[in-house]
Amino acid sequence: MINLHRFDLVSLRLYLSVVEAGSLTAGAAHHGISLAAASKRMAELEQHCATTLLLRGKRGVTPTPAGQSLYRHALDVVARLEQLALSMDDFRSGAAGQLRLWANTSAFAGFLPRLLGAYLAAHPGVVIDLEDALSEDAARAVSSGTAELAVVGENTPLEGLQSLVCDVDELVLVAPPGHPVAAQSTVALAQALDHDLVGLARSTSLMRRVAAEAESVSRPLKLRIQVRSFDALCHMVAEDLGIAILPRAAALPHVVARGLRLLPITGMRTQRRLLLVMRERARLSAPAQALVVMVEARWN
User: Fold this and answer.
1) How far apart, in whole angstroms, are the C-alpha atoms of residue 244 and residue 238?
2) What residues contact 58, with CB distance under 8 A and at least 6 apart?
3) List of residues 6+ apart from 287 with CB closer than 8 A
4) How much is the pLDDT for 204?
């Protein structure tokens, strides 16, 4: 039987980074060590496990079946140790606990600030560690133990994670007043796609959803400008640089302030759900459990 005491936490962290990046070089760079040092650690890990964990090729590395198994277990071990260390830091700092939450841009522009305001009113001793991130990055943060909870778009890969609906919004079209579609009561998706669009980065869950809808009607996505926030997006629309598809909650604050037109879209599924994701609900900290209960109360 393999000696459990010989597993090195540093090497396990490095192994996770190498597998996720598909590259020994990238994994080494992420941890600030040389390629030679990283190669040595991986060789020692394979020697300890008495099996090949990584297949090396011209395009990087891929895990063997044994390597995939190690990855899944190492992910859980490292995540638990991260949570243990952070929990002890909380008590040492005198806080009643810490809520570690990553969320996508739509959550920040919509329901999340109000929810967290109510949460802090009910739990004033909790410190919130909040990060704005892409949905896939937020889900990975939960998988790795960097965050306990994340708010992501419903089209985000969630292998091994649990989830529940935390918000439902409607996708709408926003246009400047002089735009050809601005005088209409509704706009068909196919018609909207005839025009230049302003959007977030293509990798966001929102733009992946818009791209999928465009593909469903066999139309190209004319994404003229990509920005990082809904505020910047609406500013570009106000300057007549394109129209935009975005959640209603994110659009409303800018419609009156910038004199924009908000229009319902036909020809596509406009309802969009955001999900609260976690590893295992039963193992959440008390602060994270409390937020889950509050989210459930919104929908019951």
Assistant:
1) 10
2) none
3) 96, 97, 98, 99, 123, 126
4) 95
**Long-range contacts, 72-81 (Cβ 8 Å, 24+):** 72/160, 74/12, 74/15, 74/16, 75/16, 75/143, 75/144, 77/12, 78/9, 78/12, 78/13, 78/16, 78/144, 78/145, 79/143, 79/144, 79/145, 79/279, 80/145, 81/9, 81/145
* This prediction's pTM: 0.74
Residue 266's nearest CA partner among 186, 210, 195 is 186
The CATH code of the domain at 169-272 is 3.40.190.10
* Domain at 95-167+273-299, CATH homologous superfamily: Periplasmic binding protein-like II (3.40.190.10)
Which CATH architecture is the domain 4-90 placed in? Orthogonal Bundle (1.10)
pLDDT digits (tens, 9 = 90+) for 79-125: 777 766 666 666 665 455 889 999 999 999 999 999 999 999 999 98
- CA end-to-end span of the chain, whole Å? 50
* Site of tokens 């039987």: 1
Helix (H, G, I), strand (E, B) or coil at 16: helix
Backbone φ, ψ for residue 278 (5° rounding): -155, 165
Q: What is the dihedral of CA 23, 28, 31, 33, to 10 degrees?
A: 180
For residue 42, CA distances in Å to 23, 78, 171 come to: 12, 17, 47
- Are 4-90 and 95-167+273-299 the same fold in CATH? no
CA torsion through residues 282, 285, 290, 296, sign: negative
Q: For 184-220, write each residue's pLDDT tens digit.
A: 999 999 999 999 999 999 999 999 999 999 999 999 9
